[in-house]
Amino acid sequence: MRVIFFSKAFFVLTSLAMVGAFLAPIVFSEYKTTSILLRMIEFEALAFGLALLATAIYPNFFGVQKGENVLVVTSDPITNRMVIKLATALESRKLHEMIRISVIDGTQTIGKVEAYPGIVSPARISVKPEENIEVI
């Protein structure tokens, strides 16, 4: 769930794009012939693309951070159905590493980081049903 990160990155890059759109004719002579509106659109598109790129590569550098919301995916051994719950990461880990998590109902367990978070989706943690679950 990187909507907040994307918003912050887009705001900062938009600010830089507006400054760049006005300073471009001073630094680069080929921008003197283009209109200010066209320059602003070009720089804004660049800011949007860079914000998306930063949001996409951010988890690859930092992984799942302590305190982040994650989705716990497990299967119910009795009904053989997939169960998805919201939980909180208790440790910081990278992809395919084991991580301690706390489910909303108060239980703690260990799972494997299966996927990093997307722009609107949290990280996915896989927990086997036979794992120990500690109740606090």
Task: Looking at this protein, list some descriptive labels.
alpha+beta; 2 helices; 6 strands
How would you characterize this protein structure?
This protein has 136 residues and is of the alpha+beta class. The protein contains 2 helices and 6 strands. It has a 5-stranded mixed barrel. A hairpin with a 4-residue loop joins strand 1 and strand 2. Helix 1 packs across helix 2. It is rod-shaped. The model has no long low-confidence stretch (mean pLDDT 85).
How would you sum up this structure in a few lines?
20% of the residues are buried. It is built from 2 helices and 6 strands; from the N terminus they run ααββββββ. It has helices at residues 3-27, 36-62; strands at residues 69-76, 81-89, 98-103, 107-115, 123-126, 134-135.
List the helices and strands and how they pair.
Elements lengths: L2 H25 L8 H27 L6 E8 L4 E9 L8 E6 L3 E9 L7 E4 L7 E2 L1
Parallel strand pairs: 1-5
Antiparallel strand pairs: 1-2, 2-3, 3-4, 4-5, 4-6
Rounded mean pLDDT is 85
Distance between the termini: 27 Å
Strand tally: 6
Count of DSSP-assigned helices? 2
